[in-house]
């Protein structure tokens, strides 16, 4: 399976390398041509969720970190 004939030298390796390179380029082009799915649209009037609120406890905690 992985054997090369005596007279081939490096040609068999070069050909398989080029074949793999061209195949990879073809796959990349084909995947680039696939249309992207629509991104989720933000609904109007819906605010972003608040992930962090500055509270007195949080301020005290962070002040102790930087002493």
What would you note in describing this structure?
By secondary structure, the protein is mostly helical. Helix content is 49%, strand content 0%. It has helices at residues 11-33, 56-65. The radius of gyration is 29 Å and the shape is elongated.
Which structural traits does this protein have?
67 residues; mainly alpha; elongated
Gist of the model:
With 67 residues, the chain is mainly α.
Write the layout of secondary structure elements.
Layout: H1 11-33, H2 56-65
Helix content percent band: 40-55%
What's the shape?
elongated
Q: What count of helical segments does DSSP give? A: 2
* Order of H and E elements: HH
**Structural class determined from secondary elements:** mainly alpha
Strand content is: under 5%
Low-confidence stretches: none
């Amino acid at each position: 399976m992985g054997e090369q004939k005596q007279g081939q030298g490096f040609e068999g390796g070069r050909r398989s390398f080029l074949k793999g390179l061209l195949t990879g380029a073809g796959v990349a082009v084909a995947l680039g041509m696939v249309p992207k799915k629509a991104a989720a649209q933000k609904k109007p009037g819906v605010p972003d969720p608040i992930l962090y609120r500055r509270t007195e406890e949080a301020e005290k905690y962070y002040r102790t970190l930087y002493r």
